[in-house]
């Protein structure tokens, strides 16, 4: 975020109205002003708005319009989204936001749902800033701000305190969020002061006991752990430290009645054993600071700050618990899918959305193709779709299948995607069947996919008159992985260059020349390349739409989007994908509104470059449609076929400099012979429609709760592992390279000389 502050004009209680031009206006309701600065956390803002507007915290969502765009609402989900909104309004004093949620803020429900006491009262703030000398007064102040009615106390005493001590306890990190770990530990040393100390309930007593043991670094165990009484001792064998506390009905307090405060176990045995609740509260605070903390990093910081040693499973479970409190339940997200799909379809008429669950009510598949995407593909994009997949990096290991087109500027345009429990032939066949229903077209579509996926048979079976080619990106990746020495001539570094030259060659003789260059360097590389049928990957032999110049990973954008929110539940991941798609459509629509040329800028520049080269060519008339063009070499231009013997016009969709020389000689307009897919009008048509996001995505409105509860239950899938291919893609995104082991004895890959099975 930039420096300074931004005043949010928070509107709520009204409704959005669609105008004739498709823009939205907000009618009715009330407005409140809230100031934020670069350090504001979204969680703090959300809690402030929930209190200010009397809205249920969990259902509350905050939305805004991009500057200059009143058609699509953007949802703020986390600190990064808030930063992005702040940056969009850089230089502005105010920004309009729209707050939506179910009426009724309940602090107790908020504390139970999130395990938090965020935004404590003034008494809490005062308390945490006092030194440890103020412990007796702190006990008295605690009673001031935690006082409840007698009925509430009795209900909590009877029902809310579980034996594991994890329910209803205070959020340690939030209550002491103004203190460093060292200051917290110093204060916790006085959490237990001895006989006569009073607590509101057994829950508060357990919480204080946990902090006390952490601060003094010892482990304790309960002998009795009930809602009405608790007794225990130091876990070290023979140590005399012990306690007994119980509920006093007449005073309505939980009081320490007996306590031996002396440890006889020695310093060596003093290692604390944290409860899950304490661990979750500490980890939650760390995740607020950095959502992508690794378990090892968290374990080290807790050992450093509190002297608590944790194993991996403890930290992992703590992270899961913290994320569930911060972001919602992973399991509950699946149960919201039917409601979410219905609302998404309602907001985007004409879209194709299909949810499939198995006989055990477990999630199996979800297909989504928006009307905006279908319209853009059919009216502005070449009939070319890239099929790929990437992992959602969830604990349930779902896979994202994608069908992606290219706009006139060769940038990705998502057409359809599906989330499946497992990637296999069956899931791909299902995805392609749904895709055919969504993009039914008379055009012959060219599909491109990773050769390793083996999708050719399915594609050609499901789509009539389709073409299928292998992804150049994936072929090059496999090519480089399979390179084996020795290398000659220009060396290994020349091989990828010659491989790409072979793929993009317009003529078969040019393809063979590039292949021969590969052979001169490595016969093994040549043999690997030639085993792939040229008609499925080389420009010279391929019959479908030209795509060989696309050498980047089309699916990388999806992987990058997921990388930002990999820890979130499924519904929130879906919202992030939709937000990213919506932002992409809006930004490109806005950018193209400033173009005043016939072709998009990148293609316009190519035509200008070719026009300059055309000035030096000589045109000879053979007929009204056939022309001979002379320069460094001689080529024939056929106007009827829109083709030149150099093959550039056919391969690119833009006239070559030979054809432009003919246009100049015959008075023809060059733009009449450019592919319509490269015009500004087609580009704008691609991005002419918007994706409408769903409001109150994290929780259905109160009036719809009954219908949601009556809907069929959806459980998480039971997939147990993530495919290796997606792990490799993530390592590539993160810049992690894994070395291939090569045997120095037989030159084989995958083992070393010690495990080599070849005999000498």
UniProtKB/TrEMBL annotation:
Write the protein's name: SWIM-type domain-containing protein
Species annotation: Citrus sinensis
């Amino acid at each position: 975020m930039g420096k300074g502050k931004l005043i949010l004009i928070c509107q709520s209680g009204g409704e959005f109205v669609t105008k004739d031009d498709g823009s939205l206006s907000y009618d009715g309701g009330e407005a409140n002003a809230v100031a934020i600065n670069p350090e504001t956390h979204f969680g703090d803002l959300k809690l402030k708005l929930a209190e200010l507007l009397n809205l249920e915290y969990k259902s509350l969502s905050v939305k805004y319009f991009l500057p200059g765009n009143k058609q699509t609402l953007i949802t703020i989900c986390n600190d990064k989204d808030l930063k992005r909104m702040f940056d969009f309004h850089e230089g502005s004093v105010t920004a309009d936001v729209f707050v939506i949620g179910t009426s009724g803020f309940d602090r107790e429900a908020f504390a139970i749902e999130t395990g938090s006491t965020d935004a404590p009262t003034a008494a809490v703030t005062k308390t945490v800033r006092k030194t440890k000398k103020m412990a007796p007064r702190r006990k008295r102040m605690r009673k001031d701000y935690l006082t409840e009615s007698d009925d509430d106390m009795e209900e909590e005493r009877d029902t809310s305190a579980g034996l594991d001590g994890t329910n209803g306890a205070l959020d340690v990190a939030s209550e002491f969020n103004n203190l460093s770990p060292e200051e917290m530990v110093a204060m916790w040393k006085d959490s237990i002061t001895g006989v006569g100390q009073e607590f509101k309930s057994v829950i508060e007593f357990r919480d204080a006991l946990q902090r006390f043991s952490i601060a003094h670094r010892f482990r304790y165990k309960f002998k009795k752990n009930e809602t009405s009484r608790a007794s225990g001792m130091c876990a070290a064998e023979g140590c005399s430290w012990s306690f007994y506390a119980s509920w006093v009905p007449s005073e309505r307090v939980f009081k320490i009645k007996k306590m031996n405060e002396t440890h006889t176990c020695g310093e060596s045995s003093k290692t604390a054993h944290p409860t899950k609740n304490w661990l979750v509260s500490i980890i939650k605070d760390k995740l607020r600071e950095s959502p992508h903390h690794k378990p090892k990093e968290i374990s080290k910081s807790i050992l450093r700050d509190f002297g608590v040693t944790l194993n991996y499973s403890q930290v992992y479970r703590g992270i899961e618990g913290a994320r569930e409190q911060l972001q919602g339940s992973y399991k509950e997200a699946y149960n919201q899918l039917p409601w979410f799909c219905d609302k998404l379809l309602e907001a985007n008429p004409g879209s194709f959305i299909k949810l499939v669950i198995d006989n055990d009510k477990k999630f199996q598949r979800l297909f989504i193709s928006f009307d905006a995407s279908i319209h853009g593909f059919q009216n502005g994009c070449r009939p070319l779709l890239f099929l790929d997949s990437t992992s959602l990096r969830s604990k349930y290991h779902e896979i994202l299948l994608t069908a992606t087109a290219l706009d006139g500027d060769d940038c990705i345009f998502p057409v359809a995607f599906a989330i499946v429990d497992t990637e296999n032939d069956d899931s791909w066949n299902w995805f392609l069947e749904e895709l055919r229903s969504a993009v039914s077209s008379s055009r012959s579509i060219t599909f491109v996919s990773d050769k390793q996926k083996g999708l050719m048979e399915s594609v050609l079976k499901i789509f009539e008159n389709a073409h299928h080619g292998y992804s150049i990106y994936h072929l090059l990746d496999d090519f480089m992985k399979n390179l084996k020495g020795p290398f000659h001539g220009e060396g290994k570094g020349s091989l990828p260059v010659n491989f790409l030259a072979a793929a993009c060659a317009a003529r078969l003789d040019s393809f063979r020349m590039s292949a021969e260059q590969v052979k001169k360097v490595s016969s093994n590389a040549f043999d690997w390349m030639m085993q792939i049928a040229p008609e499925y990957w080389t420009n010279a032999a391929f019959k479908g739409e030209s795509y060989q110049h696309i050498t980047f990973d089309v699916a990388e954008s999806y992987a990058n989007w997921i990388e930002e929110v990999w820890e979130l539940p499924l519904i929130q991941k879906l919202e992030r994908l939709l937000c990213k798609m919506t932002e992409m459509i809006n930004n490109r629509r806005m950018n193209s509104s400033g173009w005043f040329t016939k072709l998009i800028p990148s293609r316009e520049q190519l035509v200008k470059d070719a026009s300059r080269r055309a000035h030096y060519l000589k045109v000879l008339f053979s007929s009204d449609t056939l022309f001979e063009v002379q320069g460094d070499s001689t080529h024939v231009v056929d106007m009827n076929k829109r083709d030149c013997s150099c093959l550039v016009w056919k391969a690119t969709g833009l006239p070559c400099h030979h054809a432009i020389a003919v246009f100049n000689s015959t008075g023809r307009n060059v733009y009449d012979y450019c592919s319509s897919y490269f015009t500004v009008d087609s580009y704008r048509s691609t991005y002419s429609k918007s994706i409408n996001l769903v409001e109150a995505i994290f929780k259905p409105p109160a009036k719809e709760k009954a219908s949601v509860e009556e809907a069929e239950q959806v459980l998480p899938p039971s997939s147990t592992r993530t495919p290796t291919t997606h792990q490799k893609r993530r390592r590539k995104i993160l810049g992690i390279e894994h070395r291939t082991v090569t045997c120095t004895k037989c030159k084989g890959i995958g083992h070393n000389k010690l495990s080599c099975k070849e005999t000498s």
